[in-house]
Design a protein that fits this description.
Elements (H helix, E strand, L loop, with lengths): L13 H12 L10 H14 L5 H24 L6 H4 L14 H8 L10 H5 L10 H20 L3 H4 L11 H4 L8 H4 L3 H9 L4 H14 L4
Length: 223
């Protein structure tokens, strides 16, 4: 613990973040780690070698990584592979395009159709456990994510000018992909060029998208 700002000193090692996630959830079954573990190794190595983080930065990244690992453990416990087939195979709109080209606007326009079922911000930032809209459990999740968004906007006050975010608002799947540790959010959070080079050159991203499909099906099972 530092005397200056009382931010804990943490180890950005796989053993440390795994242990913290297991302690946080009470779960130890990681399931198939073949997709996310190599990416996590690369991210941790790059954070240590390149990011030049101060104590607060290290703790922020540690919390983020442990949070995503905890969600993976809880999803494994929930049994996302048992989501009914009719849910997992529902048709979907897929929007792609470079940043700042209106993809978010298009997504939110489509989400206005009452026959669509968009991912909400609360679904992608706190996907596990899945909750049914209108229930007390869902309202508690919305409140939890609203507090997260308030803290984020306080740290990055210009964010709303770039990308409006709110717990009930439609949101993009990148936050779910982030649980595989192979999303474009990595280089936005810290200077990690070796990690990003590895992601860009890693080749087959099929496993990442299979995990994304499982996450989306799990989140949408009560819709």
């Amino acid at each position: 613990m530092t005397e200056h700002n009382q931010v804990p000193s943490v180890e950005l090692t796989k053993s440390a973040v795994f242990a913290a996630a297991e302690e946080q959830t009470g779960c130890t079954d990681w399931g198939d780690t073949s997709v996310f573990e190599p990416a996590l190794d690369q991210l941790l190595a790059s954070l240590e070698a390149e990011a030049q983080l101060n104590t607060a930065g290290r703790f922020s990244h540690w919390m983020s990584i442990v949070g995503r690992l905890s969600q993976r453990l809880l999803l494994q416990r929930e049994g996302h592979d048992r989501v009914p087939t009719e849910i997992a195979e529902r048709p979907a709109f897929v929007i792609t395009g470079p940043p700042r080209t209106g993809t978010t606007l298009l997504q939110r326009l489509l989400a206005l159709d009452p026959d669509t079922d968009p991912l909400r911000c609360c679904d992608v930032l706190a996907p596990v456990p899945a909750t049914r809209p209108g229930t007390d459990e869902d309202e508690a999740k919305i409140e939890q994510v609203s507090q997260m968004v308030t803290q984020l906007n306080a740290r990055v006050p210009d964010l709303l000018k770039i990308h409006e975010i709110g717990a009930r608002m439609p949101e993009e799947e990148v936050y779910l992909i982030d649980h595989s540790f192979m999303s474009a959010l990595g280089p936005l959070r810290a200077r990690v060029p070796a990690y990003w080079k590895w992601v860009m050159e890693s080749g087959d991203l099929g496993g990442v998208y299979r995990e994304l499909k499982h996450f989306i099906a799990y989140v949408g099972q009560y819709r």
